[in-house]
Amino acid sequence: MTLIKSISGIRGTIGGAVEDSFTPNDIVKFVAAFGYWLKKRDAHKKKIVIGRDARLSGEIVSKIVSATLQSLGLDVVDLELSTTPTVEMAVVAENALGGIILTASHNPKEWNALKLLNYKGEFVNGNDVAEILDWADNGKYEYVGVDELGNYSVKNDYITYHIDQIKALPLVNTEAIRERKFKVAVDAVNSTGGIAVPMLLKSLGVETIALLNCTPDGKFAHNPEPLTENLTELQGMMLEQKFDIGIAVDPDVDRLVLMCENGTPFNEEYTLVAVADYILSNTIGNTVSNLSSTKALKDVAQSKGGNYYASAVGEVNVVEKMKEVNAVIGGEGNGGIIYPDLHYGRDALVGIALMLSSLAVNKTTLSALKSNYPQYYMYKHKIELSPKMTLTAILEKMKQLYSQSTIITIDGIKIEMEEDCWVHLRASNTEPILRIYSEAKTYEKAKAIALQVCAQI
User: Fold this and answer.
1) Is the pLDDT of residue 429 over 80?
2) What is the pLDDT of residues 291-332, one digit of tens each?
3) Does residue 282 surpass a pLDDT of 80?
């Protein structure tokens, strides 16, 4: 059983012992600390927005969260089944104190989590998380009396609001999309993408939509992380029938992965690259991605006259860097698109709208589009961390072994071994593992680098 506390929220497995798993006791403690922390930062607001993906534990967790917040005297606005980016935008629209998204994102069905948002609808930063955790561990919160209990209301129209805001973006060309008459296949892993993605596509004028795993019942039909090896059904559908594009999202719809018209994977690392290419073709500016993302974004940004900057892994870190350098587009190589003209959060829905606009305006296909980009190959590996393994010691030893290489230490260590070749080692924010990502001009070389580092560890 697992309970992880990081900038990615409070995440754990359902069932098990208190303080070792995502139990009702732990949910109450962290929600109470977060809600009380929000109250102390702004005594004039009482509203907090919540929403959830469709995983099996979601409804129970939602009831616990709502009751705890009301017990603090906060008014809960519940979006019920929703998406992470939708909740983020609703926090701002409701002028709320903050928000909580109930989702473990790409983790399997055993997991759930509390993603904590500030009044901007953005993830709370590392310093704030540390303070909230301290308040939780030391019981620094108080509940209100019976006459001051908070209210509870449900609002189910925010996905429509989200879509309307996307369509209002200047670079979302609804007319071109409608005229192109796209045929689209969608795999939403039986979560809330099954609600939001078809709604978006229909609103953009897409008439031919084939739905795969789009019943939001939380019964994940495959591993919910939208990686190529988990999307065999979608790939089979693309090969058997004629579609222009295949779309896959994770359970909370903040990651977008595409499948080409010929059934070949577009690769989640290139989702951001392609969207950035479209944005930079219309607006020259800076781009940001995390250290574990493909070098192709840097190449494309520089070819368009923009600059590229790297951040530590984690949405909050990417957003902070984007604000610092005034980036026009950014995100993470896992299919996470952050488009600040809409909001500062990873958003698969805006990614879909921008990708379809790019394909329609440029009258091209996904496979042709990808062939235009520098081709890199990434190998992703992980090592489970036992309590006896000291990550700091491991990283220090690796720095010694590769002291002749360029080493970046803003998040674990990234070793730039030679031109177009790197490996990144860091502790996961969402699982008790050490992630090892490598990239090179060939898959074989990328894999060899990662396995060499694993052997050394």
Assistant:
1) no
2) 999 999 999 999 999 999 999 999 999 999 999 999 999 999
3) yes
Is residue 387 predicted with pLDDT exceeding 80?
no
Identify the DSSP state of 370.
H
**Given 105, 191, 357, 438, which residue is catalytic?**
105
Nearest to 22 by CA among 135, 123, 103: 103
Q: How far apart are CA 421 and CA 153, in angstroms?
A: 52
Q: Is 202 helix (H, G, I), strand (E, B) or coil?
A: helix
- Report the C-alpha gap between 61 and 84 in whole angstroms: 16
DSSP string, 400-418: HHTTTSEEE-SSSEEEEEE
The helix (H) or strand (E) run that includes residue 249 is: strand 245-249
What's the CA gap between 185 and 192, in Å, rounded? 16
What is the reported pLDDT for 154? 98
Q: Select from 336, 334, 273, 341 the least CA-distant residue to 306.
A: 273
Tell me the residue ranges of DSSP E strands in 291-427. 308-311, 327-332, 336-338, 377-384, 406-408, 413-418, 421-427
Calculate what percentage of the chain has a pLDDT beyond 70: 100
233 φ, ψ to 5°?
Answer: -65, -45
According to DSSP, the β-strands at 406-408 and 377-384 are unpaired
Whether 276 and 297 have beta carbons less than 8 Å apart is answered as: yes
pLDDT tens digits along 198-209: 999 999 999 999
Residue with tokens 């620094």: 140
DSSP-derived secondary structure letter, 306: -
289 catalytic residue (yes or no): no
Structure tokens given for 410: 């803003």
Per-residue pLDDT of 222-243, as tens digits, reads 999 998 899 999 999 999 999 9
Tell me if the pTM is above 0.90. Answer: yes
Nearest to 413 by CA among 400, 429, 115, 318: 400
CB-based contact 22:12 (threshold 8 Å): yes
Q: Is the pLDDT of residue 1 over 70?
A: no
Closest CA to 135 of 8, 31, 24, 27: 31
Contact criterion met (CB below 8 Å) for 103 and 55: yes
Q: What's the DSSP call for residue 373?
A: S
Give the position of tokens 């980036």: 327
Contact 181, 207 (CB under 8 A): yes
Terminal Cα distance for the chain, rounded: 25
